[in-house]
Amino acid sequence: MAAAVVIGKHRRAKTAVFLIACGWAGAVTHWLEPIKSLLPAITLAIVLGGYGLRTVLRDRKNISESIQQVSKRGDEFLPKVDVLVAARDEEAVLRRLVEHLAALRYPKQKLSTWIIDDGSQDRSPALLEELTHQFPNLHVIRRSRTAGGGKSGALNEALSRVDGEWLLILDADAQLQEDVLQRLVSFTEEGEWSAVQLRKAVINPQQNSLTRFQAMEMAMDAVIQQGRQAGGGVVELRGNGQFLERRMLDKCGGFNEDTVTDDLDLSFRFLTAGALVGILWDPPVMEEAVATIPALWRQRQRWAEGGLQRFFDYWPLLTSSQLTFPQHFDLTCFFLLQYALPVISLVDLLTTLLTRTIPTYWPLSIVAFSVSGLAYWRGCKSYSEGPSLPSPKPVTLFLAITYLAHWFVVIPWVTLRMALLPKKLVWAKTSHHGK
Length: 435
Known about the structure:
The protein is of the alpha/beta class. The protein has one domain: Spore Coat Polysaccharide Biosynthesis Protein SpsA, Chain A (Alpha-Beta Complex), CATH 3.90.550. It contains 16 helices and 7 strands.
């Protein structure tokens, strides 16, 4: 619980400082001599581009090694696992979820499913009541819609009732292979992980271009995560498909109810507690991708806000001697690429229009998009279980890289909003349709 002392303090002020710093960095180069104006971007392009290339091209040996691995323990020695699902208005996917969980090849006496009905107003309560009669290992916890704490509050509600050594956290639209738990247990034994994130795979990539690009984006993210892990950097949890050691979760104080992204926040709480987090390529956890631009916009705003929050909340610990140099370097580069670059680039563009000068950060942007394209290609060309990944043909890669430009709108907008407006914590859930 040591990290709790910095949670939620002065978020608006910290965001404002970050916004001002990025604004200054994006504008000041336009008043330098033409040759000198490109030096900051070229320097960053070399450093961050080198980091990105090393991350993407690192050997990801557990892709092939994890394919057929199952735990060698006898059933009596396997850990007890509780599956936790926070669900609100999920009637379209709940039956499919419960049927998938019932089909898992894991000792029934060692496996329980807990669904927290977080004030559903559709048919979810009646459907869950029906499912509890069909599946003995299914337990339902009911919460008021106004109970507060969002998804974190719902998961914390379950923690007081479960006694498993490990927790598998899923979204309501999750689909799993039957042997996923045995292979997760084997992977945690080998790596001595305190948490493992399954690769996320999209089950509806053929629905439209937006879902196809998200399928590629998830593969790209997993490639980068595995590269960060191989380089001694930081692996982040992704919510759906996270396997957590209960002992370490309790040590970190459970789920933070003062954040909009419990997974990203928990990643840093595990990190500052000295816990090891791993990423497993196969088998994946399968989920729906959002199919419309408004839904994507809502989802990405929440991800951007939660991502920035955790850096501001845990900054004193992230810059302390608790972390290793590779972890410090990894976090710094990731922060600059993911959050600073979009804001700086937008300010650079606006300054270009106002002063009628030449953009100065284009070398860094080109490098960032090129590394993303390489990560796309490597992820989509890798052997993978679950839904087939889109073929990384040149046109598809170009369009997928263009799709990533939405972050250069989302991040600046969310940063501005966080700096100017008081925070109202709202769990903006993603709608699932059972496709």
